[in-house]
Amino acid sequence: MRKLAFSLLYHILFVLLVLVPAGILAPHAGLAEASVVVLPTNATIDDRSAMFGPHLGDDGLVGQLLIVEAADPGNADGCRPLARRMDSSKSWIMLVERGSCGFVEKVRNMQASGAAAVLVGDPWYDLPITMYATGDTSDVRIPSSFLARSDYHRLHDAALSEPGSNALKIKLVRNEYYELPFLDVLFITILSPMLMMGFIYILYRLRLRQHRLRDLAPADVVNGLPTKTFYHSKYHEDEPAECAICLDDFDDEDELRILPCKHQYHVKCIDRWLTTRKKFCPICKKNVCPSSETTPLLSPQLRSIV
Ligand SMILES: [Zn+2]
Ligand SMILES: [Zn+2]
């Protein structure tokens, strides 16, 4: 019954600490965390901000979309700077293709070519990924985002359908809705599992303590066992002359505790044994508690013979 209660409590706590916060926060943890707004039509395309470079400000970033392939044929993937640096009086958001070189390399090349921001489109897969880079990226001063294949093609087609090449105005915006607050992330990833582990540990300690207490003799039972004062003059040869716990010989006026099995020990030795180690006689293993007079180390068959 107690086992069932513990199990029930464990599951309730698991739901409260892990599943409920995860359920509440999951809708806010969508894949897209930023958007590209095609200003003439207000069409909105999801993208994903890179882990390197600055983040978009609250006001977003407005610029002219520049398909790099159109401005510099043969450089669709942006793995080298544009043949001719763009006029920096305008805000250029450059669209390059994924592949051939690292994300940060593309962004650095476009930054050197006068870009205000970079969009990297995936020509093959419809899977949004987060662009990240190893090493020092503090030289990257422009924001960049990743577009999965269908979003990349939508933006690409929108740019091509615009009269006059590279005239499409777009706005990069940060999508507040999708941002997971730091404290929520901290709660789900660290605090919640820690609380669960703490709870499980407390349960484990409690059960361990219960098991230990079951193996010990209560102090009142131990204090109720008879005692006697040892004198060599009254010593019988069939009685033990030493305490089996501390292995010291009994001396005159030593206080001895006599267990129900008639084995005798120093009072301080046997009392500590019974109340902190085991409730059984150290020699014959007989239980000193009156409720069960069993000998735990013997099988039922042997007990019936004894
Ligand atoms: Zn002793
Ligand atoms: Zn005994």
From TrEMBL:
<keyword id="KW-0812">Transmembrane</keyword>
<dbReference type="InterPro" id="IPR046450">
    <property type="entry name" value="PA_dom_sf"/>
</dbReference>
<dbReference type="InterPro" id="IPR013083">
    <property type="entry name" value="Znf_RING/FYVE/PHD"/>
</dbReference>
<dbReference type="InterPro" id="IPR003137">
    <property type="entry name" value="PA_domain"/>
</dbReference>
<dbReference type="Pfam" id="PF02225">
    <property type="entry name" value="PA"/>
</dbReference>
<feature type="transmembrane region" description="Helical">
    <location>
        <begin position="180"/>
        <end position="204"/>
    </location>
</feature>
<dbReference type="GO" id="GO:0016020">
    <property type="term" value="C:membrane"/>
</dbReference>
<dbReference type="GO" id="GO:0008270">
    <property type="term" value="F:zinc ion binding"/>
</dbReference>
<dbReference type="GO" id="GO:0061630">
    <property type="term" value="F:ubiquitin protein ligase activity"/>
</dbReference>
<protein>
    <recommendedName>
        <fullName>RING-type E3 ubiquitin transferase</fullName>
        <ecNumber>2.3.2.27</ecNumber>
    </recommendedName>
</protein>
<keyword id="KW-0472">Membrane</keyword>
<keyword id="KW-1133">Transmembrane helix</keyword>
<feature type="signal peptide">
    <location>
        <begin position="1"/>
        <end position="25"/>
    </location>
</feature>
<feature type="domain" description="RING-type">
    <location>
        <begin position="243"/>
        <end position="285"/>
    </location>
</feature>
<dbReference type="Pfam" id="PF13639">
    <property type="entry name" value="zf-RING_2"/>
</dbReference>
<dbReference type="InterPro" id="IPR001841">
    <property type="entry name" value="Znf_RING"/>
</dbReference>
<keyword id="KW-0862">Zinc</keyword>
<keyword id="KW-0479">Metal-binding</keyword>
<dbReference type="InterPro" id="IPR011016">
    <property type="entry name" value="Znf_RING-CH"/>
</dbReference>
<keyword id="KW-0863">Zinc-finger</keyword>
<keyword id="KW-0732">Signal</keyword>
<dbReference type="InterPro" id="IPR051653">
    <property type="entry name" value="E3_ligase_sorting_rcpt"/>
</dbReference>
